[in-house]
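Journal club prep — side note

Before the paper discussion, L.F. wants everyone to see what a predicted structure for a comparable chain looks like in token form. Sequence:
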Amino acid sequence: METTKILSAPFLDILFDGRNKAYGAYELRSTYNRRLLKALGATGLIIATFMGASALKGTTSKQAPVPIITTVVDLTNIKEPEKIELPAPPPPQQQEPKKIETEKFVVPRIVPDEKVVTPPPSQDELVDVKIGLEHIDGEKLGNVAIPPPGDPDSKGIMEVRPKDKEPVIFERVEIEASYPGDWGRFLTTNLRGETPIDNGAAPGSYQVIVQFVVDITGTVSDIKIIKDPGFGMGAEAIRVIRRSGKWKAAIQNGNPVKAYKRQPITFQVLDQ
């Protein structure tokens, strides 16, 4: 390109000077602005079309306002029905209580016949009347139960009630019977430890179990040997229990009861 044309020539002509302008690149760059304007115009048209359609749809979808219907309530005075007073019921007739014939209670006193002023009523007269503090005339009861006549052969024999049954001896109680003092000291003081040695027992530990009954007063009775290793130890245990005196009774439901008591006693025979 000539030097005099460079200052007035477009930039594309200077850039593609001496090159093949028919190849396509020159045509694309020279028409770039027109294509860009067409694309922007088409995009704007599409956006405007969508916005218009949305606005039209929004106006058509709106519902017509619902009219508010108000009702005017007219409050008028309502006449109350006249109250009808019912006649009062007649007062209940009070009936006088039925009088029942009553004989005055007389304390029996033994006096000579000549001093009797007013004899007490007989048993036949008291069959169908009440016994009270004073004499009242009235109707006889007529329904008093009369005991059956007694056996004429009994001649005043009184019925003897059977004796009360022996109290139950409890085997299990809430609180067992116990010795009132130091039981260990009592055993060491009164038990004859040489008894198994005198009877030829071998060295070792021997246990005797004694069963006895303690009643509600603490008295010991019915002493029996449940376990006896022999060598006179069972008899010695019975002798000591008999000398133990009064015990504290067992307790069941907060009350002293008669109960069994099992007491183990151990004998030690040492190797000499």
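L.F.'s comment for the group: Residues 144-148, 154-160 have pLDDT under 50 and may be disordered. Keep this in mind when we get to the figures.
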